[in-house]
Amino acid sequence: GAVVSQHPSWVICKSGTSVKIECRSLDFQATTMFWYRQFPKQSLMLMATSNEGSKATYEQGVEKDKFLINHASLTLSTLTVTSAHPEDSSFYICSAKRTSGPGDTQYFGPGTRLTVL
Amino acid sequence: QKEVEQNSGPLSVPEGAIASLNCTYSDRGSQSFFWYRQYSGKSPELIMFIYSNGDKEDGRFTAQLNKASQYVSLLIRDSQPSDSATYLCAVRGGSNYKLTFGKGTLLTVNP
Question: Tens digits of per-residue pLDDT, B50-68?
Answer without folding.
Answer: 999 999 999 999 999 999 9
